[in-house]
Amino acid sequence: MPDTLMGGIVINEILVDPNGTANFDTDGNGTANSTDEYIELYNASPSAIDISGLELWDDGVGLWFTFPPGTILAAGGHALVMSGVQTGGALPTGNAGDLFFDAGRASPLINNGGDNVVVYDPASDEYIAARFNGDPFDNPVTDYPGFSPTATQSGSGENFGNDIDGFSIQRDGDGAATFVNNEAPSPGTTNVCLTKGTTVSTPKGDIRVEALRAGDWINTLDHGPQPITWIFAFHRTAAEIAQDSRQGAIRIARGALGNGLPHRSLTVSRQHRMLVRSPIAARMFATAEILVHAKDLAGADGVTTAPVLDGFLFFHILLPRHEVIFANGAPTESLYLGPATLTSLSPNARKELDALPAAHKPDPTTGPEPARLLAKGAKVRQMVKRHQRNALALCGAGLIAA
Question: What integer pLDDT is reported at residue 339 of this predicted model?
């Protein structure tokens, strides 16, 4: 289990060296700079936590950031502190519940060769610590001038492993106990949805997503026709996507998944999951069918970043359970309302969702049971490369609605 403060605050992600071989420009000013480094905390509890006064400490500079009064971190929310926003830059944007702060430093804070991250709660006189790149654990009580001499450590400290320049060290899923070091930095998350013009398989034939309404029935792979519990549309403008590319979309060309799927070009949000079924998936994940983010399929022929033009009109489709549905003929997912997705919804979307009967909503602390294994990241991208080398379809034959 991760080390926690205040009943659920964990160190979630560390961007150690933004301007290495693979650059990452956190503030979007056009240049990856050493002060693009950041520390991200995560609220792994089911309730909002007031993190006002929580402190970040470092061996080299001591106390370097204190969360200001009134800082409430939502359940499943991220609180990112960037070392220093540069001229022409701005703090990144995330989802509802995510918070972003500028420590205002003109020089880097994190020691790329190895360092500790220490988060201290003065109210409880407790701290948590994480180390990386082989740095031994510090004892801030004795090693950090000005640190509380009576503080106690929560947990035993976590080893985040080694970083790769330009990539962050992050938990393998928010709040998870394991870490990955070859993922692009992920300050905040993106929406999980279909775009306007997508056709969805229904008992009455394929219907454009914008024509569907709550109460309409759509086909699923596992449970036959199921009623739409909730559907919500929202627009991402070209300006918003220019500021934060994670708000964009992925285009999957006709037939790019194999076996003629999708039947015509399909555009989905970057985090929307597609079903993969193949012998390679079975060997790598010990299950023949997995759901993977569209962005992780981008190494496949015909799967590319979608041109932005005027932006995208996205649609959430919620069913009584998480299901595999069919978009332009290709197997994909309905909205998966896990805790992180719940916190990413806009205030208007959350208001509509909150108004639904309790029986139509998943447990906010656990989310629904996923329809398939949810896979992501480097292992999925490696799987895609193996499909490419072997000219094997990502979607095996026979995937049709029940």
Answer: 65
